[in-house]
Specification:
173 residues; mainly alpha; elongated
Length: 173
């Protein structure tokens, strides 16, 4: 196989790959990041190229998968922090100067949330309690429960989702 010139590949394909990524992400900056990541992945896997005539479609496939992964990651970033920060705020002992009514309201909500936590399945209950009540990080939870870090992340995500569902059923808006 001949040596592949990535500068030349970038010059030839970056514009088209950016268009592909933009169609998926609908964000110019994100699309450019996807293209950069695409070329990094391609560079790492250059030894897997069998037919140099198919490099364009190979790069396109990498760009599409990378854009989709990027969208999923962005979605998680937008969803998790707000939910997570709200729940962690509820369980934190850092009480800012709040009125008595706000404190009582927060205590009642905390009690309701505590009750709802125990309506979740055992596996979701465990990770959420360790995260919210004990403030453990995902890797600490993983080592405590003898799980992989990815499993803990998945369970936390699903636990929050299940908690949201249980909450909306118990206390409809």
């Amino acid at each position: 196989m001949a040596k592949i010139d990535f500068d030349e590949l970038y010059r030839l394909h970056s514009k088209r790959l950016t268009q592909i990524a933009y169609k998926i992400t609908k964000d110019r900056q994100l699309a450019e990041d996807v293209v950069q990541e695409t070329f990094i992945k391609a560079f790492k896997k250059v030894d897997t190229i069998v037919d140099e005539q198919k490099i364009a479609s190979w790069l396109s496939a990498i760009a599409v998968r990378t854009a989709i992964d990027c969208l999923r990651a962005e979605k998680r970033k937008r969803w998790l922090p707000s939910d997570q920060s709200i729940m962690e705020k509820i369980y934190s002992d850092d009480c800012y100067e709040q009125s008595i009514e706000k404190e009582v309201e927060m205590l009642l909500f905390k009690e309701q949330l505590q009750h709802l936590l125990y309506l979740l399945s055992k596996e979701y209950q465990q990770v959420l309690v360790l995260k919210l009540q004990y403030g453990l990080k995902e890797n600490e939870i993983a080592s405590r429960l003898n799980l992989k870090s990815g499993t803990v992340k998945t369970r936390l995500h699903r636990a929050r989702k299940q908690l949201k569902k249980v909450m909306s059923e118990k206390y409809p808006a």
